[in-house]
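Incident review: delayed structure delivery

Summary: a single-chain prediction request sat in the queue longer than the usual turnaround. Root cause was a stuck worker, restarted by the on-call engineer. No data loss occurred. The affected request and its eventual output are reproduced below so the record is complete for anyone auditing the incident later.

Affected input:
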Amino acid sequence: MTPWLDRGTHRRWLDDECRRLIGFSRRVAHPAGGAAYLTEDGTPDLGRGVHTWITARMLHVHSLGAALGLPGCTPLAQHMVDGLHGSLRDTTHGGWHHHVSPDGAADAAAGKSCYDHAFVLLGLSSGSVIGLDGADRLLADASAVFLERFWDDAAGRCRDGWSADWSAVEAYRGLNANMHAVEAMLAVADATDDPAWRVRAERIAQWAVDLAGQHDGRLPEHFDEAWTPLLDHHRDRPDDPFKPYGATVGHGLEWSRLLLHVEAASPESGRSDLLAASRLLFDRAVLDGWAADGRPGFVYTTDWTGAPVVTARMHWVAAEAIAAAAALYRRTGEESYLVRYREWWDHVAQHFIDTDAGSWWHQLDPTGRPVEQVWPGKPDLYHAVQATLLPRGPLAPSLTSAVADGYLG
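Output delivered after worker restart:
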């Protein structure tokens, strides 16, 4: 019998959901350049200004749409490139601002972040793959900034943040930005045919493998400048959207998948530890996070014993669970991952997919009711769109290159 993941009917459903999601963002172009922040029904909230990370993610998403052959995606992706070339770019000091206000003022207090710049690399890599005007040139500029400011070659990891003028580097180091740097580095390697980016990604991945082994699959997220884990960081802000306290269940799942992409991108390395760590991270996230409070869904965070801390259900965690289960099934052929994959799509279809207003609810309470405590509106399509595409493609090359090269079938 054809596995559920590979059945034509399921693949058509994934394609339909992908197109539905991308269609939700048809009004995403901000008149000032870049991406608007989308509300519950896809209306642009122009009062929130323009964010670099949202713009870069929307560039990635609409580049994927263009690679799929969806009309209307190329102009929107080009609008995002133009936005990254425009007001979001710091023409005085270099790099990209975190946010530009509705009146065009840059948010200097937010400084320059690795998280933002990793998504700039990812988005521009995708734009380069589909041939957007100016994407190659801007990707070269972004790569130079990233290597000069964020990549710590001695440590084999990325620094997290700088002041707006690059005069001071933050003492804080974070796993989240490094995780997204791995994805971006693999994409840059494919877009530019520069294998050095894969080597950098593998070095960061090795750190995650070591951390997983040292902490029983619960990854520390926060570190000081000596890379010492700060296990109590943000204990007073446990539901922070980017730097929450404790172990972040969704990141365990995301790392589980990314380690398999790193392995597939460098098959000559012959490493077995990446698969072993991927399994550990997946199993720990599922054991700690899935229905941990007796209700369906993944909790957001746990403490270091695995007890739930923030029990809100985030859409991106469910999306990453689906993608990780699919990746492990592709890698191992083991039926248990396919069972989880099917279970979690059923959960998403029942609770997260908003068939009325569009997209997915970004946050649910433990009863499945939409709430907006951490994530108001629906500004992010990146995780959900990838959940509809990653299960249909190979573990390498990276997603936009795989779509553009016809690997989705």
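Verification: The domain at 4-404 is CATH 1.50.10.10 (Glycosyltransferase).
Action items: add queue-age alerting; document worker restart procedure.
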